[in-house]
Write a structure and sequence with these properties.
This protein is mostly helical. It is built from ten helices and no strands. The protein has one domain (2-257). α4 packs parallel to α9 (210-234), α4 packs parallel to α10 and α8 (185-203) runs antiparallel to α9 (210-234).
């Protein structure tokens, strides 16, 4: 299903909606042939009450899942901004070191930033990590831990730098974890079953004109498709058209190269 995220959202939604509308229409025609008008009208009173109850339960579930996936998507963006902020702070703190040490630090920061943007970022869509980026992070640590501490005049800056590197690693791990699917299969199963069942419920009501009922069922099918597509896209923050871009890290790279 990930290929749908690579398509333009309008195309993906149109494709999924066309399938759901076609299936809904065929099922509606089948039910109309199988059950007479009198039988279907008998369902209106009791069926309406059950339909409202079922719709309320489904709406609560959908609202909860949308809230959780949007919160996680937003958290993923914030973690990346914090990762970039840690790099920017390291770059600024490097100015307090002797020139030779400062040059090595800036080179290590630049290597890590470039590796994340150009090597690891494309791999996030599949939840993988870059060996090159991991080595760049370890090299950044080594740059500090292998320093000649006797040449450092401000130990407070050194301790602060180590703290930023530690936080940088934490944010990188969070980014990697966020790139993997978070919604369990059981929840997807309940969402899909609920979406299908709520449409099936509409078949056991009857309007005089088939076209009118078909339009209402179509609207419900398309709306359910939109919701499920949105949830799926939010659950894959590094895939497709809605993916998060490394803009914050690009800023750090520009800071290093002197563009900012």
């Amino acid at each position: 299903m990930d290929f749908l995220l690579e398509w333009h959202p309008v195309l993906s939604i149109a494709f999924l909606s066309a399938i759901s509308v076609l299936v809904s229409f065929l099922a509606l025609k089948l039910v109309r042939r199988r059950f007479s008008e009198d039988v279907l009208r008998e369902n209106h009173e009791v069926g309406g009450i059950i339909f409202n109850s079922f719709g309320l339960i489904y709406a609560v579930l959908v609202a909860f899942v949308v809230f959780v996936t949007w919160s996680e998507y937003d958290t993923s963006e914030r973690n990346i901004e914090l990762e970039a902020s840690e790099l920017a702070d390291l770059y600024n703190l490097a100015k307090a070191y002797p020139w030779g040490t400062q040059s090595k630090i800036k080179e290590a920061i630049s290597e890590y930033t470039s590796s994340v943007i150009y090597d690891e970022w494309p791999m996030l869509s599949s939840g993988k990590i870059s060996e090159k980026t991991r080595n760049a992070y370890h090299n950044l640590w080594d740059t500090y831990t292998m320093m000649d501490l006797s040449s450092i005049t401000n130990m407070g800056v050194y301790q602060e730098s180590l703290s930023h590197i530690s936080h940088l690693g934490e944010k990188r791990r969070s980014r990697i974890f966020d790139s993997r699917d978070d919604i369990p299969g059981i929840i997807w199963g309940v969402l899909l079953c609920g979406s299908i069942m709520i449409i099936i419920f509409t078949y056991f009501f009857r309007t005089k004109q088939l076209a009118a009922q078909f339009l209402m069922t179509t609207a419900l099918a398309i709306f359910n498709t939109l919701i499920l597509y949105m949830i799926y896209a939010l659950d894959h923050p590094f895939t497709g058209w809605m993916k998060i871009h490394p803009e914050a890290l690009n800023y750090v790279q520009g800071l290093i190269t002197g563009h900012y």
